[in-house]
Write a structure and sequence with these properties.
Layout: H1 3-12, E1 15-18, H2 27-30, E2 38-41, H3 61-81, H4 97-104, H5 118-122, H6 146-162, H7 167-176
Antiparallel strand pairs: 1-2
Bound molecules: flavin-adenine dinucleotide.
Amino acid sequence: MTSAEVSRILVHQDKAIGVVSAKDPDFERRHPGRSTVEAVTLVPYDWFTSWSETKWKRRGLEYEAFKAQLSARLQTALEQYVPQLAGKIDYTELSTPLSTQHFMNCRHGEAYGLSATPERFQTRVLRPKTPIRNLYLTGQDIVTLGVAGAMLGGVVTASYLLRRNITADLSKRATRRKSVKPVLGDESCEPESALV
Ligand SMILES: Cc1cc2nc3c(=O)[nH]c(=O)nc-3n(C[C@H](O)[C@H](O)[C@H](O)COP(=O)(O)OP(=O)(O)OC[C@H]3O[C@@H](n4cnc5c(N)ncnc54)[C@H](O)[C@@H]3O)c2cc1C
């Protein structure tokens, strides 16, 4: 993988940037003037296959150098969107598909689960009940990718096991929580959204 190829993918491909510390109402008090930012992009698993048999933290200098290269490119891309970050970053850490493979047991580091293809959504296999007695499926792969999909997967499996549609229970809870004040002092934040 040449530097230009890495740059092309990291600068032009889809990215997501999140200011994780902004979700913690107590963060500013505990760490005044500081924040944490997460930048995520897509990378092919092929880039990492030569290290797939290595162990976490013992993948070797070449891997560390490649990570440093990726990290620098991602930071450059990040600073294009948030230029005020330039020169203000004290610490960075990069995880790769091998990290996701190690920590989450995803076969090719696919943090968002199965590919979002029509076949995946049409299959009748991805549902709570399996042919194995007392083995049930849940999480993003039985509904759709991401945290919201994983949460809904929990609702679907719980509904199956309890033999009732628990979305109605959740909806009732949401109605009860209408009296809760919006968090983070954001008046535009609807109380219902605090449920999840
Ligand atoms: C860096 C990063 C940032 C992300 N950001 C976002 C975001 O901003 N928004 C969003 O919607 N999604 C995001 N995601 C994706 C999100 O984390 C997943 O969609 C979500 O966690 C899927 O939840 P899940 O419960 O289905 O699976 P997981 O969270 O993967 O949980 C599966 C669990 O099963 C465990 N496990 C696996 N195999 C075994 C086994 N054989 N035995 C026992 N335990 C096992 C794993 O260790 C893991 O704890 C992000 C992911 C990553 C890695």
